[in-house]
Amino acid sequence: MTSTPYHITTLLEKMTSSDKDYRFMACNDLIVELKKDVLKLDEDAEKRVAQMLLKLLQDKNGEVQNLAVKCLGLLIHKSKETNLFWLNETLCDNLTSKEEQLRDISSIAIKTIIAELPPPSNSLSARISHTLVKRLLNVFKDPSVDSHVQLESLDIISDLLIRYGNLLQSQHEEVLDVSLSLLKNSRVAVKKRSIIVISQLVTCCSQEVFLKLLDYVISRLSDADSILMYKTYVQAMGAITRQAGVRMSDLLPKIIPLVLSPCGEDSGFKDDELRECCLQTLESFIQKCPRDINQFIPDITSIALTYLSHDPNYYDDGEEQATGSDDEVMDTDQEVDSADEYNDDDYSDDDDVSWKVRRAAAKCISAIISSRPDMLAEQYTSLSPALIKRFKEREDNVKSDIFEAYIMLLKQTKAFSILRGRDVIIDSNDMETDGPILLLQQQVPDLVRGVTKQIKQKSDKTRQCCFSLLTELVLTLPGSLSSTEDLNKIIPALNSSIHDKNAASNLKIDILHFLHVLLRNHSPACFHPHIYVLCPLLVDAIQDSFYKITSEALLVTQQLVIVLRPELTQTADFQFEPIIDTLYHSTLLRLKATDIDQEVKERAIACTAQIIATLGDKLSPEQLNECLCILLDRLENEITRLTTVKSLSTIVVSALNVDISSILPQTFPLLASFLRKNQRTLKIASLNCLTVLFEKYSSVISEDLYCPVLKELAPLISEDDLHISQLVLILLGCLSKGIPSSMNFIHDSLLPRILFLLSSPLLQGTAQTALLNFFTSLVRANIPSLTYESLVILVTEPINNPSKDPAQPLHKHGYHSIAKCVSALVSAVPDQTDDTVKSLVAIISNKTSTDQQRLYALLTIGEIGKYYNMRAYSELQQILIGTFNLTSEDVKSAAAYALGNISAGNVEQFVPYLLSQIQANPQHGYLLLQSLKEVIISLSRHPDNFLKLKPCVEEIWSHMFQNCESPEEGKRQVVAECIGKLTLLDINDRLPKLEAALKSESENVRATVVAAFKFTITEQPQTFDPLLKANIGTFLCMLEDPVLSVRRVALIALNSAAHNKPSLIKDMLGFLLPKLYAETNVRKELIRQVEMGPFKHRVDDGLDMRKAAFECMYTMLDTCLDRLDIFEFLTHLEKGLKDHYDIKMLTYLMLTRLSSLCPAAILARLDQLIEGLRATILSSVKPESVKQEYEKQLELKRSAIRALVTILQIQDAIKNPKLNDFLAQIKADKNLNTILDNAIHDTKSLTGETSMDTS
């Protein structure tokens, strides 16, 4: 690039032109050149460019100055170190210039350079930042320096501390001394900038400097003799708290009383601005130190409640505002000002700052609510009534914050109710009589009364807050507004607000959203008296010119239609016919329109479908036909087809049996074509729609309609997308029942794909069930070419002819699927059972059979044995036990499975024999125990069948305890599951025996017994749950057992209880949590080195224990959040961020959950969490590592960054300096930045968010 230096010289010449446009274009071209990686400048060229840019900083044209600043920022990436130092020195000299414009532009240039400097890891940045801070601090040694220079210098120091604070440790004390001295400055702006510098300093300074700062501020607060001085140091304390509140926990007993002091009645400082500062600082303490400030919460709450109503310049005679009629309140021509009745010529509302105190008090209360979910019940007693009373606040900004505080209370209650909803009440005595839900229910009338009075106000902001609060109330407590009295207040207020000619669009949208939530979460009957008010309201909204209002109104109308007629097959108890035409025509008008927003089109289609599905029998044939024709037209439109397909499904499944056969000939080809589209949601909707169509109209669907559909189904059957495969199989099952002849067309393409899926190792769950149901329907369809025998041959082809594709042997899971399929065919054709069983027994007995054939036969015998009594095959047991001597482990396991299932089908005959074999054949002990486990598990699924086992229980129990001390862990696990299930058969008798076994000296017995107790905890409520709750503590006390393996099993049992029935353990968490948290620590005594040839390998015997502990923590986060101290929880979670791979992955999942559940706690501990994430995200793998290590490290980084992205979604998280610095480091790395972008995109897709600011 030899021409570049010449080109730069040319640009420099143009920069001296007298024409400002030349200078502007030259700077612009220079920016382009400096961005090129290939551009290289020698030292002399750098100097000339820098000198010219410094000269342009004094240009008379502002645009040229701005471009010169940008050029300087880019130039530092091309400059040598000496030139960089010279440039910064020159700019610092300019900073003290007497010319104000030069000072300002030089300050901007220095900030730009700081932003463009290399990251802190670069030594150059350290040297430059040190030099800059030194020069800037010298400014304050000159007492005559202009205050504007001081302000700019403080700004630059603040920027340096944000980016390079950790590199400036040696200068921290000097920065602190200068900043503290400036707190005495007479200029308020200088004080504020000094406080900002101090707040940035505390994020990176040493503990010694931090304590020096706090001691100084505390001493100055103690000695303050003026309001101004007290206010300054309270503001400083608030800024320190916001940035480093976690570091202040030990000094809170000294600090809080000093901050509370000016708010007391006996305080000598009676100043509203000081009170505001104190309340803001207290809010910061609550948010940053919610756990450590616990002892002061009552005092802070009392003060916040006092100042929430602090309005010394307004006389309240005790009556509520807005006591006039609705017309008087809503009349926009009449100004209502309660202060007008007091004529005080010496006072103006402009001088009143008491509203700031009330606003700070409201925010303080909101902080208490958000950070202390454990105090919800108490908050409903103390805070809720006070907030409701203050809804009458006269200042809109304050009123908005009061509503926000109450909305926060409702959100916390909703989280609590969701958590309680997952729990199972196992004892009526456990029902809370003073819980937050009950307290909220009691306060609903007062809440509604207070809100409805405010809805009548003129302010759009106030009314939006009212409807937001009511929406949150209904979501928190569905059905809470169902009383006639409440609705009689809300509906008229809602109606008058939406018809207010001055109401903003956003207010109308909020009203409609609330109405939609209200209709969805209440009984339809309670709205019937108000239908004739709601209907005109919605019709007007549908006709609104703003598309968002129209869209929301159509959504509400769709819900209103359901409310009109909730039971389609019953006679309605009120007359809705008069409004059908009104709703129909207003919706039809939007359905016909083509020049409207996409959202409105979709909502109009969905609303029309709901009208047809709910009121179709009340529409005339002409009206119905008109709608169907339009829907058919929308089905052909690429933009609206997905919504239309879903809408057709809604119409077809309606209990009214609306006849849409007139459009079927056009509908089927379109739906078939949609199956080819590369749009998964459209495929799913189309398959669902086709399924309901075949169910409803099978008698009128001809071959030329269903054949095109069948042709499109084969490519959709794949193990890559089991959900779509499942839908296809359900569709085929419907076809085989409704139109059996259609199955003649599946031989060539569909059946081979289905058989391939049957052999897939991925087939499981609902997809497998759908496949089995399809084969059951198929064999019952009596198709000549698809008889029972032919289907069995097709299904077992991979077993009987394995050589067909030797490169892909049948997976073990495929044998299980094929066995289930044959069993399903047998169950559909019972006449074939005996012949099938005989042939399977023959395969097992035949010495020439392959292991694959035996495995299939044994598994199939087991599946058939679940429902068919094998009494006639008395020799079968001996045959199955004989296979235990074969070499194949898979065959032996299948034999144990088959033996257990046939024994479950005939307990009286087979179980005694099985027990005798356990005693007689100890060499097959494990396999026989497996069989016995299958018996117990199979019978336990049906309580009546389980009772058949009662005569044998004592003998089984004895056998199990004989095997408790087995050195084989696998055998002990089988024994534990059997003992647990047997205990449920007679829990009153067996549970004490289990407790007694806990005292055994054998660690294996103790571990087995605790594991057995885990199997007594079922997800469904049981009559014996109170007994489990009374005794669970005895078993979980094994967390104190000296043996590691016993403690681990106890942790697994605790995890099971927390997951399935948290009520069992919630009252014991005070005892259990310390034991759980203790197991999260890495124990050096459990780490040992193992020599493997020339290599040494570290083995951590405590790793499994820690995994179990963190898994239990993860479960409790989901089920016991209301009983956890989140900050203690986070303390132990932080350890997991530095632990083993598996544990790190768990902690990232927990961080993701906590970011949405407890955002305030995450923000309070963000600095520590960032350090844990940084260690993983910025780490690198050793060059000699194997490929698996690279893959594990990459997956760790992805998971950590996903957790980071969820933290970024927390409001105000991006304001954290460490987080910003960490983000900058990630973005500086190309690979990490790609992972970050992908994580943000995935999060948006899941949450539906449109933007996320990480800049």
Automatic annotation (TrEMBL):
Keyword Transcription: no
Gene3D superfamilies: Leucine-rich Repeat Variant
Domain of life of the organism encoding this protein: Eukaryota
Single GO biological process annotation from the record: SCF complex assembly
Domain TATA-binding protein interacting (TIP20): 1064-1227
Keyword Nucleotide-binding: no
Family (UniProt): Belongs to the CAND family.
Protein name as annotated: Cullin-associated NEDD8-dissociated protein 1-like
Lineage: Eukaryota, Metazoa, Porifera, Hexactinellida, Hexasterophora
